[in-house]
Each structure stands twice: as C-alpha cells, then as structure tokens.
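Lesson 9: reading folded outputs for more than one chain in a single document. The general rule is that every protein is listed as its sequence immediately followed by its structure tokens, and records are never interleaved. Here is the first one.
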Amino acid sequence: MRVLLFLVVCMSVCASVSGQIVVDHECTNLSAIPSSAIENAKAQLHVAYEHTSHGSQIITGMTGLEGFAGSLFDWNNGPSTGALDIDDRFSGGTDLGNSDWPNLTRTYLDTPANSDVNVIIWSWCGQVSWATESDINTYLSAMTTLESEYPGVQFVYMTGHLDGTGLTGNLHIRNQQIRDYCNTNNKVLFDFADIETYDPGGVYYGDKHPTDGCNYDYDGNGTTEQSGDPAVPTGGDRNWAMDWQDAHTEGVDWFDCSPAHTQPLNGNLKAYAAWWLWARLAGWSGPSPGENAVQDRCWAIYE
C-alpha cells in the first residue's frame, strides 16, 4: 500500500527524473530558472532534509533568499499554498555520521503522516574528510537500497564540505568516489563541495586548498591558514567570498545571512543551487544550450 501511495503522489515528480541530475557550481544562476519551474516545485515536492550545522547552510540561505527576493521563494515546514514544503531536520537533528541514518529514514517514511514526502536528502558534517573507500561504499549502497525500497521517493546524494586539504587530500578523493558513482548510475547529486570551489564569476579555487569557510591559499605556500573563526583567513591567505562581497553591492548582488562556518555568499549560492535542484526534480529540464554561460551568478530580478 505504501508503494502504491507513493507512486500516485510522486508520478509527475519521478517520471521527470529519468536520468542523472548534478547540481554544482554551474547551477547557481538563479535567473536561469523560469518562475514557472519554481512554482511547479512548490506544488509538487514534499522534501525531508536531515543535517547538522554544515547542512544548515542550505536552509539559512533559502530563508535569507525568501526575505530578500520575495514570496516566489517561500518555503515552510508543512504543506502551505504557494510555499515549498520542507520537513527540516526530520529525524531529530543528525547527519550521515549517524550509522543508523538508513533506519531513521525508514521509520520516517513508514509513518502514515509522512506519506506525502517524495524527496529525501541527508547531508554530511565533516565525516567525508576521514572516511575510507569502504565507508563511502557503505553510504552509496545504503542509498541505493533505500531507492529500491521506496521507488516513489527521490533520494538526493551529497558530497562533503571542503576542508583545505586540496586535490590530493582524502576529502577530494572520497568526494570524487561519490561523484563517479552518481555519474555511472544516473543518480541525483547535490555537489556541496563543488559549489564551495568557485566564486559566482566562475573563478576556480580548487587548486588553492579552499576551505568550507571560503578561505584559500593566496600566498602559495601550500596550506590555507585561518583564525579561530573558520570563515576568516589569516597570514598571507584570503577569502574569495569576502573579496567578492566587497566588490559587489549588498542587497542588490547578494544578501546578508549567517550560514554556519562560512560567509553569506556561500549561503546565497547554496540557496540558488537548492532551488535549481527543486526545479529539476519537479520536471524542469534545465536551461537551453548557451543560456547559462559563465557570468556573475548573483540575484537577477524576474522580469
């Protein structure tokens, strides 16, 4: 009965997700998403999202965007006309570091009151930094098993946040393991780390030991130094988000918010990418070729 109910509720959503969806730094151009696609997402999706502090960057950004850009980007916990339904921290406040996350998901989805939920997302905290290949395989296998058990639910995979160890560090290797699996098996991936690797103009920092706070190795000594505040660099290093914010107008090009461990701009970009994800899951095919060229992917008012 559970499967049949989900098939009915999610038919339009799941039918549209026939192949791979990767949401990364190229999916932060909010103005490329038609307002109709955003409205469709709000009408069709019922999302359950579990996370701790790093994952909260998405929610903080979305809340700030709602206040900055208006009711088109409304969301709340519970079905409401004109708002996206997100059950935020649905299992009580944990992340993929909890080995029981698959069973917590099952318990949640098997509860009749949650029968409308058709998207599940779990985020990492810092666990990918020290995860082994086997650890990540366990995560990928558990996600695939849940997909087979709940065919009416779209499960979204996620990479771990940056940690300053660069392209040869364990984090990058394990994140690439997740990406490769999603590429090979046509999964839906929210590439958390990739979004932290580029500024809105498409400038790449991945080879400069970037951190989750947007600090990077400016002086070229092979490490990224930061103060007690992880979002503030020290020594001869810099912060790409702070630099971009200083060069652009607050309240016009970006909005202030307080995402955990990082700068407001990172929260902005996570929110833009999240709405790109919701629109794609609800059937939007993405922009036409050339429509999403590299540019300053800051807020643009809908005409």
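And here is the second record, again sequence then tokens.
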Amino acid sequence: MNSAQVLSGLAAGLASGGIEVVDLSVTLSPETPVIRLPDIFAQSPGVSFEAISEYDAPGAGTWYWRTIRMGEHTGTHFDAPVHWTTGKDHAANATDTIAPQRLVGPACVIDKSAEAAINPDTLLTVEDVHAWEAQHGRIPAGAWVLMRTDWSKRDSAEDFLNDSHTPGPDSAVMRFLIEQRDVQGFGVETVGTDAGQAGGFDVPFPCHTLMHGANKFGLASLANLDRLPPTGAIIVAAPLKLKNGSGSPLRVIALVPR
C-alpha cells in the first residue's frame, strides 16, 4: 500500500466512523487548575477572558471575540525542550521551530489508574514498562508514552492539585524511555509531567530534566486516556506556533480504530 492509499484509507475510516477521534484535552476556563509553586517563585496566572466585542457596537452589532490571558503551561498543554534549562541549547527546541512531523506519533498507554487510586504518589517504573511490553510488544521509537491514572476525573481543583501529591514517572524510567526506546515524549493526566514530589528525586523533576535535555516533549493535563487502547492509537499534539514558545495550551486528539 502506497502513501496515497494510506491517506485515502484514513479519510475513509474517519468518514465511516471506523476510526474514532478522541479528544484528550480539558476545557480552558477561569476554573482550570494551574500549578501552584512555592511562594518564592513567580506564579503562572489562571485563565481569564475579556470581551473585545459581543454582537454590540464595538463589533458593529455583528461579531463576538475576546482577549485571553494565561501562562503557556495551562490546562492541557505541550512542554517544549526550551522550557527547561537542560533543553535550552538544542536547535529547533521551541513551539515555533519544532518540525511538525514530530507532533504526530503512535501512543503507548500504560495504565496505572488502580495504583493511583490507592496511592496518589504512585510512580511509573522500568518494571511497569517491561510488564506492559510483555503484553503489548516493544514501545516503538518515536512513540508517545502516556501514563493513565484517571487523575483527570477528579472534580475539584483542590483534589486535582492534591497538595502536590500526584503520580508521575521515576528517574530510571525516564532514562530508559529516552535511551533504550527513543520515545518522542511523555504524557500525563496531572497538572505537570513530573510527580508532585519529584523535586526530591535523585534527578529532580526527571521528566523535565531528562526528557527536555534529550530534546523531547511533554504533555500534561490530558483527559480521556481510559478511552484509548494500550496500542494502536495515533496522537496529534500540535502546540500554538508561538515565537520562542516554551509550551502552549493545545487540543490533543487521538485517532483510534473502533
């Protein structure tokens, strides 16, 4: 099958419903939880909107639009390598310079939801990856590895942020996924790609430190990972093309065979 036939098959699958488009993003609003840093650090603002016009005189009685204000890392968002000091010297490391083909790739979903329901500080480990691969096959190069925890189902901002007790990857699994599997990036359902207590790990904030240091990406505050199979889905994660962008809110979608 040639490339044209592949694309025709994709279009036919989308039209027939044989391929489902799953939205992995949360809605951005003033209620969207934003990471809370210790008071000694600068804080990211929450989401705010201001009407420019709303079918009134400033819009000739016809159109509606708004200004928006938020940090680059708000809601469902993309982390570019330039976001972290370890990734600042890579070429093409910002949201406007990353090659677009790197924003599309296969998803490998590792389910840690049962563990996270019991222990909010649960970690993804190399042993978890080996167990997953024993069932589903080797993680391919260029894949997005997504850690399912069902954290996105938490109703309130307080429960979602959970006083910085949230699941994430340990340091060893980040090294493994980068060095042994050459993944494209790592995604989570929590407010940031690292565990809430990752500042105290042997490599502090290992997803940020190691993944961006390897010129790879992060996705945070994902939703609906329970609707994805362990393998077989394709992720499209295209951030806004912000000049020198360290990241961006985005609408992540998954193409999933029914």
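What the second record shows: The CA atoms of residues 20 and 119 lie 32 Å apart.
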